[in-house]
Amino acid sequence: RGGAAEPVIPFTQPGNLTRVYAVTSGKGGVGKSSVTANLAAAMAAQGLSVGVVDADIYGFSIPRMLGVDRVPTQLDGMIVPPLAHGVKVISIGMFVEDKQPVVWRGPMLHRAVQQFLSDVFWGDLDVLLLDLPPGTGDVTISVAQLLPDAEILVVTTPQTAAAEVAERTGLIASQTHQKVVGVIENMSYLPQPDGTHLEIFGSGGGQAVSESLTTALGYEVPLLAQLPLDIRLREGSDSGVPAAIARGGAPTADSPAAVKLAA
Ligand code: ADP
Fold first, then answer.
1. Is the Cβ–Cβ distance between 205 and 156 less than 8 Å?
2. Which residues bind ATP (predicted)?
3. Domain 17-262 has CATH 3.40.50.300
4. Are 257 and 154 in contact (CB under 8 A)?
5. Torsion of CA 89, 82, 263, 166, to 10 degrees
6. Mutate to test the pocket of ligand 1, among 60, 200, 234 (most ligand atoms within 8 A of CB)
7. What is the per-residue pLDDT across 155-174, written as a single tens digit (0 to 9) for each?
8. Most CB contacts within 10 A, which of 38, 188, 192, 203?
9. Helix, strand or coil for residue 46?
10. What is the ipTM of this complex?
11. Are 194 and 235 in contact (CB under 8 A)?
């Protein structure tokens, strides 16, 4: 695999049928990785062949959320990704020493993402999800270059400040000519015992991002789901069993979103 030739990324080859979704957010902590993990597990539970690239190199959290404790094996110079809940997963967290921070510059980040795409034995995937770092930094640009056909999924909270930065992240798509497939609003409300919704982070952020991206990009960017705050979602992230597939799991709306994205 040495030499000057560019590594081959299977997802960009003619005839490749994998749907590639890059999950992005303006800020950290809005639930981007949780949404990625739950979507992946929900799609795999629907019988799809799913892969996840944890492209949040500095802030990797996918291994914990999907409960992967194994290290990848190697076969014929390729990396074989571990399976978790039927999902093939690769993360820098599998290659660094426990709890060591990743301190890399742009070119190394680019190379890591490139290797995750070209040197991992993905097989035939129906769906590949990439958990991007928040914002519009090096990795986001690398992914746009490496996977120009990846569709962007924007995660935001209902809060105005979060929505504004999420919008900017979505607008990068117009520069990179990538399609924004939709918006997922997370932490939309806390369900109350009396059935009402307590809107802890305000309301309207997801709708606002959807509308402004629709106007700016000139095509419909739907609000795909509004997910409640739910302790089971947080517990699922910590225990490695995403709530979307847990028994007695949280009644999150992400499975319908998974259905829409899988279609
Ligand atoms: P990001 O990837 O945007 O940084 P995470 O997915 O890591 O965000 O989520 C941040 C924290 O919030 C995590 O501890 C996660 O378990 C928790 N969390 C995310 N979404 C919800 C939710 N809907 N209900 C409860 N906890 C959530």
1. yes
2. 26-33
3. yes
4. no
5. -10
6. 234
7. 999 999 889 999 999 898 88
8. 38
9. coil
10. 0.99
11. no
Residue ranges per domain, the chain?
A: 17-262
Q: Which residues of 132-154 are buried (b: 16+ CB within 10 A; e: fewer)?
A: bbbbbebbbbbbbebbeebbbbb
Which tokens belong to 171?
A: 């607008």
Any binding-site annotation on 218? no
**Is the distance from the beta carbon of residue 237 to the nearest atom of ligand 1 less than 6 Å?**
yes
Q: Is 88 a known ligand-binding residue?
A: no
Nearest CA to ligand 1 atom 14: 234
List pLDDT tens digits, range 110-123. 999 999 999 999 99
Of 60, 133, 48, 138, the C-alpha closest to 95 is 60
Is there a binding annotation on residue 27? yes
**Is the CB of residue 33 below 6 angstroms from any atom belonging to ligand 1?**
yes
Amino acid at 27: K
Whether 154 lines ligand 1, by a CB cut-off of 6 Å, is no
Give nearest CA residue, ligand 1 atom 9: 31
